[in-house]
């Protein structure tokens, strides 16, 4: 039998080992734990199949903190702040995590992307090649982390099994500063780019110069109780050819000072895709700078053509209760809808939407009920 005295005799060895296994007959947890105290220990810790304790480390510029080979059911606990050295031009991602039934607990610590070493006001549209920061392919839960100064796109979410993201703060406020050309330093810094199924993003805070949510494709998506400061708002799209979005709930969010509050946009000329069964409830939009609610089918190269196309069907878009939208006094429109010929269909009950500030513009015969422009 493995005795108490035997266990005590092993403690000095365990204290100096980065990975150890607690014996199965000790009466304690059967999972092993691998501690990471330097970047060089990452690969061996991940391949061990153990739970991970991620300490305060520095990730070399141009390298990824790659946790993509975690064992099923593994827990990652962050015990120190992680700094990603900047400067090297590459595409990223700077961090990647994959696995089944993973629990990631950031412990309130910070991942610092050193975005200021890349920002040039052009984002992913030109200038320096900037690495995307966080790629989540895992199923399970991801919580309690601050992501500071991402160079470009913050979270790319492509989970293969149900995933909850909660308690995350994305802080790109330093990127709001203007450069000598009058452009915000940080650009294309979407907080959550989602192409996934069964994803819940709840109770997070986003400070960004781009979309708070950019939902590109997927189904079973819940975006709830989040705070979006600055940003371009909560967006479905841009929807490209063959992309399908369905069964989406956007509820209880606060969006302040965004270019757009709530938006659905499809690419002009795109075909065979669809957006369906989207429900908005209890969202509060304040000081929307351009549009409060915008649904457009004329999006091309970052702007509007003014000529909507009908290759993407948008159906069953519902504002069911408690949605309030207030625009800035000089905003373009409170509600702006531009549908293609016959491509906005189904149930568009907007009785749960209240808009104040700018005037509204609705065209293309969307079947809106319960709301008068």
Short description, anyone?
The protein has helices spanning 4-15, 42-47; strands spanning 19-20, 33-36, 51-54, 58-59, 65-67, 75-78, 82-84, 95-97, 102-112, 132-136, 140-148, 152-157, 163-166, 169-171, 192-202, 205-208, 213-224, 227-230, 234-239, 244-251, 254-256, 260-267, 274-281, 284-288, 291-300, 303-304, 313-321, 323-327, 333-338, 344-345, 348-349, 353-356, 361-363, 368-369. The protein is mostly beta strands.
List the helices and strands and how they pair.
Layout: H1 4-15, E1 19-20, E2 33-36, H2 42-47, E3 51-54, E4 58-59, E5 65-67, E6 75-78, E7 82-84, E8 95-97, E9 102-112, E10 132-136, E11 140-148, E12 152-157, E13 163-166, E14 169-171, E15 192-202, E16 205-208, E17 213-224, E18 227-230, E19 234-239, E20 244-251, E21 254-256, E22 260-267, E23 274-281, E24 284-288, E25 291-300, E26 303-304, E27 313-321, E28 323-327, E29 333-338, E30 344-345, E31 348-349, E32 353-356, E33 361-363, E34 368-369
Parallel strand pairs: 2-3, 3-6, 4-7, 5-8, 6-9, 7-9, 8-10, 9-11, 10-12, 11-13, 11-14, 12-15, 13-15, 14-16, 15-17, 16-18, 17-19, 17-20, 18-21, 19-22, 20-23, 21-24, 22-25, 23-27, 24-28, 25-29, 27-30, 28-32, 29-33, 31-34
Antiparallel strand pairs: 1-2, 25-26
Catalytic activity: (1,4-alpha-D-galacturonosyl)n+m + H2O = (1,4-alpha-D-galacturonosyl)n + (1,4-alpha-D-galacturonosyl)m
Enzyme class: hydrolase
Protein name: endo-polygalacturonase
pLDDT below 50 for ≥5 consecutive residues: which ranges? 1-29
Provide the CATH superfamily.
Answer: Single-stranded right-handed beta-helix, Pectin lyase-like
- Gross morphology: globular
Helix/strand/pairing category: mainly beta
Strands, total number: 34
Characterize the biggest β-sheet: 32 strands, mixed
Give the domain tally.
1
| H/I helix tally | 2
Spatial extent as radius of gyration: 23 Å
Please state roughly what percent of the residues sit in beta strands, choosing from under 5%, 5-15%, 15-25%, 25-35%, 35-45% or over 45%. Answer: over 45%
């Amino acid at each position: 039998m493995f005795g108490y005295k035997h266990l005590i005799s092993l403690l000095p060895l365990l204290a100096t080992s980065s990975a150890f296994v607690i014996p199965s007959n000790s009466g304690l947890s059967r999972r092993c734990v691998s501690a990471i105290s330097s970047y060089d220990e990452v690969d061996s810790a991940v391949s061990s199949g153990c739970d991970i304790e991620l300490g305060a480390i520095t990730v070399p510029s141009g390298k990824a903190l790659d946790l993509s080979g975690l064992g099923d059911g593994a827990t990652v606990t962050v015990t120190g702040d992680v700094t990603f050295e900047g400067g090297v031009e590459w595409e990223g991602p700077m961090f990647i995590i994959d696995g089944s039934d993973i629990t990631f607990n950031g412990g309130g610590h910070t991942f610092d992307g050193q975005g200021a070493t890349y920002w040039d006001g052009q984002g992913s549209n030109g200038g320096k090649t900037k690495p995307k920061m966080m790629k989540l392919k895992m199923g399970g839960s991801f919580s309690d982390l601050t992501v500071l100064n991402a160079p470009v796109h913050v979270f790319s979410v492509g989970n293969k099994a149900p995933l909850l993201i909660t308690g995350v703060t994305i802080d790109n406020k330093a990127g709001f500063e203007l450069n000598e050309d009058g452009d915000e330093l940080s650009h294309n810094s979407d907080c959550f780019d989602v192409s996934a199924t069964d994803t819940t993003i709840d109770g997070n805070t986003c400070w960004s110069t781009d979309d708070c949510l950019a939902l590109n494709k997927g189904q079973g998506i819940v975006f709830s109780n989040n705070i979006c400061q600055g940003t371009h708002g909560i967006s479905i799209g841009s929807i490209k050819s063959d992309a399908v979005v369905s069964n989406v709930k956007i509820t209880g969010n606060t969006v302040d000072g965004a270019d757009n509050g709530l938006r659905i946009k499809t690419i002009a000329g795109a075909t065979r895709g669809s957006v369906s069964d989207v429900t908005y409830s209890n969202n509060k939009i304040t000081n929307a700078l351009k549009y409060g609610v915008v649904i457009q089918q004329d999006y091309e190269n970052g702007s509007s053509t003014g000529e909507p196309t009908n290759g993407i069907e948008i159906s069953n878009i519902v504002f069911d209760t408690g949605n309030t939208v207030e625009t800035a006094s000089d905003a373009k429109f409170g509600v702006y809808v531009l549908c293609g010929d016959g491509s906005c269909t189904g149930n568009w009950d907007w009785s749960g939407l209240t808009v104040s500030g700018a005037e509204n513009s609705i065209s293309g015969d969307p079947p809106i009920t319960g709301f008068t422009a």
